[in-house]
## 1
Amino acid sequence: MRKLPRAFYDRDTIAVAKDLLGKYLVHAERVGRIVEVEAYLGPHDLAAHSARGLTKRTKVMFGPPGHAYVYMIYGMYWCMNVVTEREGHASAVLLRAVEPVKNVEGRTQGPGLLCRAMGIDKQLNNHDLLSDDFYIAAPIELHTFTVVKRPRIGVDYAKHWAKRQLRFYIKGNPFVSRI
């Protein structure tokens, strides 16, 4: 595996989201193949946390690309985003599902279950994804697959942004969320 460079993340968020599919999320000894993601395009995207502006919670999103934005939902699940584009832009890609590759136990369909199975929690918020123990890597062998795009999940409050097709997943992969 080859760790992704900072330049990979410092690009258009939709391009990064699609390109994350098939890559490996590595945390300590755990490895999962990313099979489903959602793009959040910055403060103008009403579904993005950054739409509420710069806060203690969203500060990571406004920072440099290639860092993890980890936050809690429903008071019980951690979720992980990958910060994209230039510093100050506040866009990110939510990791929604991984296919277990090594040392991953439990369900991984859905962002909360993914984080639980991969051992990701608030301690990894703002973690640099170029580190040695928590990163995203390209596989040695490239596999071809079809990318499906659909509306994001659970963002009905975001008006017209709720219908935007910013959820991407690998067609036919059994680890994609069932919605």
## 2
Amino acid sequence: MSEIKIRKAAATDCTRLLELITELAVYEKAPQEVTVSLEHFVESGFGSSPVWWAFVAEVNNKVEGFALYYIRYSTWKGQRMYLEDILVTEAMRGQKLGQLLFDRLIEEAKEKKLNGIVWQVLEWNQPAINFYKKYKAAFDAEWVNCSITVA
């Protein structure tokens, strides 16, 4: 029987987290988009002013999934959790790790007195959409994603 543990990520998890982020990027057909360095990633999560936090799903002491979030501010709603990425390795899908991670995010949002969780999902990612529908997620087709790169 597998031992499953959901815990807060530690700086020592960052190498594995970047491996999983790359796995997610491959799944989303954009592996070339992962350009963050390990040093920047570690500093951003565990330096003097962290901007992201994460939970990891360990199975038999190996990280097999993660959920990484940050706090955003909505002028309409106040502080909200923004789920940047959630991933369970392909080999471990169907083992309820995603549900355990998502449920832990909900607990965290309640503990921090945040009023909601927001995220994005690719329109073709039907497995993820189906997963979020189990939580009665609202899907908003009205907003268009925008970004710029500054260097």
## 3
Amino acid sequence: MAEYRLRRAGIEDARSIAELHAKAWRETYLGVMRADALASINLDDWTRRWRERIGSREGAQAVFIACEGDVPVGFARCSRLSSPKLAPLGFEGEIASIYLLLRAQRRGLGRRLVERLAEHLISAGCASAAVWVLRDSPKARGFYEALGAAPVGVEGVWEIEGVVLPDIAYGWRDLNALCAGAGCITRSPIG
């Protein structure tokens, strides 16, 4: 059985994350997005964007990589909440992206990545977090529901490469609950 591990990404990982991101998109969005759009992903541009994200000094920003041995098979990113639709609801952190290659799914890596993001957000002072999920993806919605996230009553759309996809926001009001039993470092609520 393969050995999987998680580690925090460094600037030197930007290219491999861009490549992994593109491959995961091609697997995940095949049939949803135009094939030519998926084929024409500009890895140099994506690498530049990942360098910026990884190098950000903003305290809640973090990228973690899931590896099979030394080979990256997935990644996840969190940050302070950036959605103006969710800010009035009191969410502080955001699960900004999580992707695993198909061959690495259903092995507990997604759960471990989300728990690691929650632990990082807690250490950065965020008590709650939200995530946007494609509304018409029961698999993705079920994944977050199994981790204790609940719909927060806000919907939107994700516009990408000429495709408009409805999405729905899920959230955790208490990230400590997400970490319970996972060995995460938790913090007492303030106040």
